[in-house]
Each structure stands twice: as structure tokens, then as C-alpha cells.
Amino acid sequence: MTNSESTRSGIASDEATSKVNRRSNSSSALLRVLCVSAFALFLAPSPAAAQSFPSKPIRILVGAPPGGTTDTVARAVAAEMSKTLGQQVVVENRSGAGGNVAADLVAKSAPDGHTLLVSFTSHTINATLYPKLPFDPVADFTPITMLTTSPSLLIGHPSLPANDLRELIALLKKNPGKYNFGIGAIGSSLHLAGEKFKMDTGTYVVNIPYRGSAPALQDLLAGQVELMFVSPAVGGAQLKAGKVKAFGVTSPKRLAQFPEVPAIGEVVRGFESNAWFGLFGPAKLPADVTRKLYEAARAALASPEVRKRFELEALEPVGNPPEEFARFVREDIQRWAKVVKYSGAKPE
Length: 348
Fold this sequence. Notes:
Elements: H1 3-43, H2 47-51, E1 58-62, H3 69-85, E2 89-93, H4 100-107, E3 115-120, H5 122-129, E4 141-150, E5 153-156, H6 165-174, E6 180-183, H7 189-201, E7 206-209, H8 213-221, E8 227-230, H9 232-240, E9 245-249, E10 275-282, H10 287-302, H11 304-312, E11 316-317, H12 322-343
Helix pairs in contact: 3-10, 3-11, 5-12, 7-12
């Protein structure tokens, strides 16, 4: 073999080796890409995993004691949601600090949809009432839907020398500080309804705090206090029995149960003060889980059993979408902030 032939042979051999190496490197790179892709697919939630929710019983925490309106709403809805979701939905009462105990537990729970909160108007009132909360009422929760709203009645002792709302306002303006409001709980929607009433009418009524609406109502019946805001479920029977006077209802329109009682807004322009009850999850709840819970709650609110129960309690089903409920929560914090600051109320 000549030198030139030997050189050409060496070059050919080097090129063949280079091709083999390139193929090997290309195969290795392809293998790495395939491995990374397979690992990513392994970590990503699959549609089957999303469809498996719920994989265990769901807990709904309620920041109020058993027997109250919040508890009643939660249990009625939970029973129907169990049927839709195919898992037991249980209610746990974790009362304390105006609903903050239950809210804090949910805010710090895993965002998997298995720990939820049924909260109420105090959720937005507390944002201003409590100077330091262990959670953010907006950022630490995923709003799912508003379940229901409830108006309240402004009632008074029969001895009050006023027969309608205009006469009552005139009486209170003429006698600042002479009459009392029975307050079931400082910072509650019923307390703040009274503060908004005083703010909007320019009247001064002294607050007398109680441990709940029931003892406040007993003292009103006994003539120890003259006025209070009360839920129709608590005060409706006394009104129908003629044991109290009703001066108005806080809803925009009159209630079907008490058509003779005017809406306060008919006399006090723009007045409205409904309590609300809503379903929340912790922050960062997956969108598909949020949607599934929302649809289950909507189905519960549409059931004849829940509607019948709510009608007895003068509750209005809502079931708005998560994004609409989220917007409401933000706006409600601002709405109540003005009233809380006006009242000067401090948490108990």
C-alpha cells in the first residue's frame, strides 16, 4: 500500500469512527430526553387522578356551635354533597374567636379538597375587627360558592311608643342613649346590622352584649332591653305570637313569611344587611377539584330537602360561581370595614 493510499485509508477509518460516535451520542441524547419526558409524565397529575377526587371522606369545619344557622346550613348541604361525590361529607364544629379557629385550621390544611370550611359574614367582618389574624381572609382561601343568605328582623318590646319604622327612628333621635340594643355577639352580622342602622339613621342606641341571640331575646321579651336584630328563625315565632313588634327587615325586599313587615330600605335609603354563609377550601385548591365541589354544592342547593329546610329558616339559596363569590368576599371586607370602624367594636 502506498503512503497516499494509507493516508486515505486512515482518513476513512477516522470518518467511520466519528459517525459511530455521533450515532452513539445522538442515541444517548435521545435516551436522556425520553427519560426526562417519562419522569415528567410520572409527576404530572393525570386525568384519572383528577377524576379520583374525593379519595376519602371530606371534613367541613364550622366555626360555630351545633344548632345555630351556620351549623344547620353546613349539615343540610353536607348530606346532599355526600350523595353527589360518593364519599361521606362530615361536619365538625370548631367554634371560637368569631369563626377564626375553624378558618385557621382550614387555611393551614392540605389543598386537596378533603378539608373545607363553611363560614359566615364574620369571615369578612373579622378582617377589620381583629387587628392581627393568623391567616389572610382572602389570600389563604379558595372561595367555592356562597351557599345562602339570611336577612334579619328589627324587633322591639311591645311597650315601645312607636308603631312603625319612621316613628321608631324619630323616637330614637329624640331620646339618644335612652334605649338599648340586645347584641347576641360582638362582631356578628346582627351586631353590625345594628351599627349600620345607627350610622345610616343618625341615632344612638346603647349596645348590651349577650352570649348568643337566645338570651338576648329572652331579656327583650322580659323588657330588659327594647330592641334587637334577630334572625327570622330565632325571632319569627315570637313575632307571629304577637310577643314582639317588628319594625323592618334587612333584606332589599319584604319577606314572604312576613309580608306586612317593610324592608328597612323602604325608609332608610340604601339600607341592606344580610348575613351570608359560604363554602371555602384552603388556598391553591386545584381548579378541577374546586369545580367538582362547586357542582356538588349547587346540586345540594337544588335538592327539595335542602330547599324545604332553608325555607323554614328563611334562608335564600345562592350557589354563585367561585370567581363571583371571590369577588363578593373582597368587596364585603371593604363594605364592613366602614361599619366596624364607625362602631369602635373590639373582639371579645
